[in-house]
Amino acid sequence: MSVKQESPKILIHGVGNGALIKALKERGVKEAFVMEGRPHLDGAKVLCKTLLSGKITPTLISDNMAGFLFYKNFVKEVWTAYQTTDTQVAVCDVGALMLGVLGKRHGIVLNLFPSAKRRQEQAKPAEIMRFDSKRIAPVGVKGFVPLLECVPKKYITGICL
Question: pLDDT of 30-73, one tens digit each?
Fold first, then answer.
């Protein structure tokens, strides 16, 4: 299988605000991969709009595409949202730990930025059963929807903003 990609990009996970856009612009970022952000699709609905308003072109990916991007060397750094941090861990949007592990394995930096959206620890199981208001899972299927997870500091390169 051949996949054409012009140049490595930043991978962004979570919802940022104007401060994130400013930091990306200062670094010369013109385009970035954006994880969709299930179950609420915050990356697709919110972050993509924020990036476009800052003249940064987003390329939307499904959340489970991150490993493929690392494997194909399509990313050079990752930025993910965090809720809180201390000396041991950062509480981040779910999916950040996977990005940290992938980053460590592939030698890619993981930077954190403050989340523009406060999250509860877990969503209702029914929220994973729908996509764009349409039920996608059969009746009788259970759902597990954590929205936050702890990322040990050993996976984090920097905390920005």
Answer: 999 999 998 889 999 999 999 999 999 999 999 999 999 999 99
* Cα within 13 Å of Cα(37), Cβ side: 25
Per residue in 78-102, pLDDT tens?
999 999 999 999 999 999 999 999 9
Q: What is the pLDDT of residues 13-23, one digit of tens each?
A: 999 888 899 89
Q: Other CB atoms closer than 10 Å to residue 92's CB: what's the count?
A: 28
| 137: DSSP letter | S
Cα torsion angle, 128, 131, 134, 136, sign? negative
Domains of the chain, CATH where assigned: 9-159 (3.40.50.10470)
Residues 9, 148: Cα–Cα separation, whole Å: 25
Closest CA to 15 of 39, 52, 47: 47
